[in-house]
Each structure stands twice: as C-alpha cells, then as structure tokens.
Design brief:
mainly alpha; 2 strands; globular; two-stranded antiparallel sheet; MetI-like fold
Length: 322
C-alpha cells in the first residue's frame, strides 16, 4: 500500500517547467512562430492603415495645430459628407473613374487579344528561338515604370518623337499625343500594350500548354478544322487564364498611377483631365491639398468599385462552363 507521504507528494502541484511545456506543445506552437512575421507585418502595414483610413474618411481637415500644442492635422467629424460629395458633386472624380474604365476597355479589347496572339505564336512548334522570344516579350514588364514613363515622353514628343517621325515617313502629320485630349487615352493604351502584352502572353502560353493534345487530335479526326478546334477546345480550357487576365487588368486599370504621372508630368493631368486616374486624384487630394479625409473616402470608394467589378467578372466567367 502507498503511504500517506507518497500520496501527498503525488497530489502536490509540480513546479512549471518551460522545457516540459515546450516538449508537449512545440508541434502546435511552431507553425504560429513561422506565421508571426507575416501576421505582424500584415497588421502593422495593412490592417492598421486601413482602419485609420476608414476613420479619416469620415473626417474633414481643418488646418494644423501649433507646434506647442503637439502639431498634426486638426480633424472635424463630417459623417458621410465626403462620400456624398464624391458620388454626387465631384466631376474630377467622375472623370477619373471614366478614364479608368476606358483604359480597362482598351485592356480587354486590344491588349488581351494581342497577348493571346503572341502566346499562340510562341506556342507554335514552327517558331524558332521561342525561349528568346518569351524573354523579349516579358522584358518590358520588368522595366521600371519610371524608365518607361520617361522613354514614352520622348516617343510621343510632337516635334521630335519616334511616333510622329514614323507617321511622317508615311506622309501623315502626327498629333500632339499627350497634349491633345483625343489622343491622351490612346497614348496610355499603347504604353500599356508595350508593357503588359508580353506579361499576359506568358499566362496564355502556360494555359495553351495545358490543353490536351489527344483531345485536339480526336476533334480533328472527327472532321473539325483548326478554327473549330481553337474555338470549342482551346478557348474553354483557357477560361481560368481569361479570368485572371480580366480581373487583374480591371484592378490595374483603376489603380494606374506611375505611367500617367510621369508621362503627363503630374500635376498636369492632360487637357480636360483626360489623363486623370483615381489614384492620381487620391494623391492630389491627400498629399498636395492635405485633405486626408477626402482622399481616404476616394480610396474606399475605389476599393468597393473594384470589388464589385471583380465579383461581376467572376460571376460572368462562372456562367461560362468548360
């Protein structure tokens, strides 16, 4: 039988040992240790700024405090006034959103078909130096936006630019590309083609290489020509790529900043704001006019618009069954 002393010792709480606790819980704790740097940076650089921005979107700036009072911006709560003004009275914001939509349409109607055509060419077994071609088409995407903006300022120069020099060789008088309201958007779309066609073509190329060859061969045996094989087999298998390119193109179009900023020499936004985009307007309101509340409201409206457009695109492509 156990003595009373033995029973008392067994029931006595043991002192806490970090080594024992770690041996029992390390499998549960280690994943959180690895996740901690990301979670911490996400909270500091994403969640906290988003929360502060949401708070500011309901405020209006009323000047600055004196240094002896602590400095900083003086805010006044205005409720939904910033959102109401943006949606009903602000013509510049409306123009910026229209410009973003026009650039997105250019992405859909011009850039995406060209990217698909480039991918089809690079996927052809009859093309030599295909790897070199892929690198050449991808290179513009990794070029700094600052460099691209400055290069195209010279390309579009009315008197000495490459575009007008090429048109002059054909006997055509070139326009003032970035000084004419009718040509500012086409100029930006052309710049976008040079930058992103090669990048998007790589996604289409990856999708093309995943189309089953035996399925295409079976269709040809059944009498389908090249066009019918492409339309009824290749295109449906590229549906995920189309979804990705369309969604990222829409987000990028409304978030365009560096290229028009440099091309038009901001704060100049082209004649009649023909080169103004939502992020440029946000920057103008927030950092040049020190209207942080108004700029925050612009950011949240832009976020909601992008989420709605993205949701509609995903719904549309979901209805397109393979």
């Amino acid at each position: 039988m156990l003595s009373a002393h033995t029973l008392t010792t067994a029931n006595k709480p043991q002192p806490f040992s970090l080594a024992d606790w770690w041996s029992r819980n390390q499998r549960k704790v280690i994943p959180y240790i690895f996740l901690a740097p990301f979670l911490l940076s996400f909270v500091i650089f994403t969640v906290y700024p988003a929360g502060v921005s949401l708070f500011l979107s309901f405020q209006r700036t009323r000047g600055f405090q004196q240094a002896e009072e602590g400095g900083g911006v003086v805010l006044e709560y205005k409720g939904w006034a910033n959102y109401e003004r943006l949606l009903t009275k602000d013509k510049r914001f409306r123009e910026a959103m229209i410009n973003g939509a026009e650039f997105w349409l250019g992405t859909l109607l011009v850039q995406m078909p060209l990217a698909l055509a480039v991918a089809l060419a690079l996927n052809s077994p009859n093309i030599r130096f295909r790897i070199l071609g892929r690198l050449a088409f991808f290179a513009p995407y990794i070029t700094s936006a600052v460099v691209v903006g400055w290069i195209f300022r010279f390309v579009y120069d009315q008197n000495f630019g490459w575009m007008n020099s090429a048109l002059a060789q054909l006997g055509i008088e070139g326009p003032a590309w970035i000084r004419d309201a009718n040509f500012v958007m086409p100029s930006l779309i052309i710049l976008g083609l040079w930058t992103w066609v090669g990048f998007n073509s790589l996604f289409f190329l990856a999708g093309l290489q995943n189309v089953p060859d035996d399925l295409k061969e079976a269709a040809r045996i059944d009498g389908a020509n090249t066009v019918r094989v492409f339309w009824h087999i290749t295109i449906p298998f590229l549906r995920p790529v189309f979804v990705f390119v369309v969604v990222t193109g829409g987000i990028g179009s409304f978030s365009l900043f560096s290229q028009p900023y440099l091309l038009l020499d901001f704060p100049n936004t082209g004649p009649f704001d023909s080169g103004l985009f939502p992020l440029m307007y946000l920057y103008d309101m927030g950092f040049l006019n020190i209207r942080m509340g108004y700029a925050s409201a612009i950011g949240y409206i832009l976020t909601v618009v992008i989420l709605i457009i993205t949701g509609m695109q995903l719904l549309l492509f979901r209805l397109w069954k393979v």
